[in-house]
Design goal:
alpha/beta, Rossmann fold, 3 domains, 26 strands, 35% helix, Glutamine Phosphoribosylpyrophosphate, subunit 1, domain 1, 18 helices, binds 5-amino-5-deoxy-1-O-phosphono-D-mannitol, 621 residues, single chain, six-stranded antiparallel beta sheet, eight-stranded antiparallel beta sheet
Length: 621
């Protein structure tokens, strides 16, 4: 949830570190800091509370000179967001600095033990035990043979320290006595080593690397990279050599720039027609009437023979999973269960060799989703990833999968990832369905409708100004309801989540019929109710629910199918979407809700891309 950047090369590190942190700010933004080793072997440190711009301002006043450094942007877990808790953290001798993503669960006992050995602590963080533990082994009498270089001592001390840690970490380490070396290591928290021309950039996210190099090594779990000016060596933490593959970072700098948009969320909403086209490209073939998913082809037999499908995910990805539950049962006739990833392993999920486990994650790093994947794997399920971030941990640990190909998502509120996930899951359902029972003609109908989705999305986006004007007078309302049935129930949940996470308005999404079982008591003219009511099999029933709300003075906004004039009898405002097959409607109906949430947050004056308390990728349980 925090961001790491480290640099070793021939340029001044400071600017590169700050620029990298800015690109990672979406991952965490309550404090930040950097430590740089200068040519005289001094380790200098600057930290600041708040946004990266505060750190940059501080650095302007007295900059950090040197060509090797580490930096961090923090999302607080242990200890309040104050300067003493910002990373990097130093050992008590001031020679060794560490930045850390993750949580050290046994930090309490380690801290006590280190204090008994003479270490002193200055923060409330779990991280501070790491530099002190490294320092303990580094300075320990008799630990190393005489003649061992400082660099070798640091490497070995780091390995020894890491074996004592319980929990998760992605760390980088720098030491004033080995100023030409940076160590990176990971367990449960991602790290990428960018391999440039005479320089190396290490980061928790390729976004901080891509403007320097597109060549990168994605460190595996329990792996370490020792980076020096002469090159790098990768190994396991316990020093077994690892032959790492240099891979190409799949996206370009343009994709992570804001361009002419005010916010990443806005950009990502508007990218959806192009990105969904990219997601479909090369996978559906209208001429042949076929669907090709290269990433699961080798397991096609298991997919076709499966008896049950489990889906695990969190947040928006879980909503995409709920849409898939309807689609899989309807199209593939595959019994499907959807679980919050965070709850999955606390039940006794029934899994056998005929169970498929689909794991959905934009980042591919969400710790609960990863833990659910590992649980399902241990129980023998074939695990399929529906992931956006190429090379991420979930993508690597699943048996097979289908990437979204919607480009990096930076806005904390997920938008194009949701539509990408639903698109991929629909293709997966069709892939299975055609191999089980679906006629060629029927498949063609779906492929044709899917192919039209990007243009239909573009049409919906033309209503942007109308949606902004419509939502404005409602922005002072503190409670909203989102209601839908069938395929629109998960969309209602997603609409409510979007609104609450960026505009801080309390919103609830639920099946429209459930309203009568309690929430109807809340309906007054102070509570806007958004009905998602495209032309579908349950249309008449939803209209009845709208009547019920209207009869109690509720204010209704609706998302409906183009041409449905009748709906205006029940709703004060209507956002229209083009007609499509019922199974594909969520791909369209969610767009007005994304725009509604975006405008509400902007009108209320919030920082849309950096909502309070949130981080883009949740890597702590
Ligand atoms: O990276 P993931 O898809 O695994 O993330 C899951 C959730 O944390 C994420 O969807 C979250 O709910 C978003 N902020 C919603 O907009």
């Amino acid at each position: 949830m925090c961001g790491i950047v480290a640099y070793l090369g021939d340029k001044q590190a400071e600017g590169i570190l700050v620029e990298g942190l800015k690109r990672l700010e979406y991952r965490g933004y309550d404090s930040s800091g950097a430590a740089v080793c200068n040519a005289d072997g001094q380790l200098n440190l600057v930290r600041s509370v708040g946004r990266i711009s505060n750190l940059a301002e501080k650095l302007d006043k007295g900059h950090l000179s040197g060509t090797a450094g580490i930096a961090h942007t923090r999302w607080a877990t242990h200890g309040a967001p104050v300067e003493k808790n910002a990373h990097p953290h130093l050992d008590h001798t001031g020679k060794i600095a560490v930045v850390h993503n993750g949580i050290i669960e046994n930090f309490g006992s380690l801290k006590k033990w280190l204090i008994s050995k003479g270490a002193t602590f200055h923060s409330d963080t779990d991280t501070e035990v790491i530099p002190n533990l490294i320092s303990h082994f580094y300075h320990k009498e008799g630990q190393f043979e005489s003649g061992t270089t400082n660099a070798k001592k640091l490497e070995m001390a780091t390995r020894l320290a890491l074996t004592e840690l319980v929990g998760t970490y992605g760390i980088t380490v720098i030491c004033s006595e080995s100023p030409d070396m940076i160590i990176a290591a990971r367990k449960g928290s991602p790290l990428v080593l960018g391999v440039g021309d005479g320089e190396y950039i290490i980061s928790s996210d390729a976004a901080a690397i891509v403007n320097h190099t597109s060549r990168a090594i994605y460190l595996g779990d329990n792996e370490m990279a020792v980076v020096t000016r002469d090159g790098y060596i990768t190994s396991t933490i316990d020093n077994i050599p690892v032959a790492s593959k240099v891979e190409k970072i799949e996206y370009t700098l343009d994709e992570i720039e804001l361009a002419n948009y005010k916010h990443y969320m806005e950009k990502e909403i508007f990218e959806q027609p192009d990105k969904i086209r990219a997601c479909l490209s090369g996978r559906i073939d209208l001429n042949e009437g076929s669907i090709k998913l290269g990433g699961v082809m080798d397991h096609a037999r298991e997919l076709v023979q499966a008896r049950k499908l489990n889906i695990t995910a969190c947040g928006t990805a879980w909503h995409a999973g709920l849409v898939a539950e309807y689609i899989m049962e309807e199209l593939a006739m595959l019994p499907t269960e959807v679980d919050y990833a965070s709850e999955f392993r606390y039940r006794n999920p029934i899994i056998d060799q005929n169970t498929l486990q689909v794991v959905i994650s934009q980042s591919g790093e969400t710790i609960d989703t990863l833990a659910a994947l590992r649980e399902a794997k241990n129980r023998g399920a074939l695990c399929i990833g529906v992931v956006n971030a190429v090379g991420s941990t979930i993508a690597r640990e699943t048996d097979c999968g289908v990437y979204l190909h919607v480009g990096p998502e930076i806005g904390v509120a997920s938008t194009k990832a949701f539509t990408g996930q639903v698109t991929v899951l629909t293709m997966l359902a069709l892939f299975i369905a055609r191999r089980r029972h679906m006629s060629q003609q029927k498949l063609h109908t779906y492929l044709d409708a899917l192919n039209r989705i990007p243009d239909q999305m573009a049409k919906i986006l033309e209503q942007n100004d109308y949606i902004r004007q419509t939502v404005e007078p409602y922005c002072d309302k503190e409670n909203w309801l989102f209601l839908g049935r069938g395929y629109q129930f998960p969309v209602a949940l997603e609409g409510a989540l979007k609104l609450k996470e960026i505009s801080y308005i309390h919103a609830e999404g639920m099946p429209a019929a459930e309203m009568k079982h309690g929430p109807i008591a809340l309906i007054t003219k102070e509570m806007p109710v958004v009905f998602i009511v495209p032309k579908c099999s349950q249309y008449d029933k939803i209209v009845s629910n709208m009547e019920e709300v209207r009869a109690r003075g509720g204010r209704i906004l609706a998302v409906a199918t183009e041409g449905d004039e009748d709906i205006k009898k029940y709703a004060e405002h209507v956002f229209y979407v083009p007609d499509t097959l019922e199974e594909l409607q969520p791909l369209l109906t969610v767009l007005p809700l994304q725009m509604l949430a975006y405008h509400a947050a902007v009108i209320r004056g919030h920082d849309v891309d950096k909502p309070r308390n949130l981080a883009k990728s949740v890597t702590v349980e």
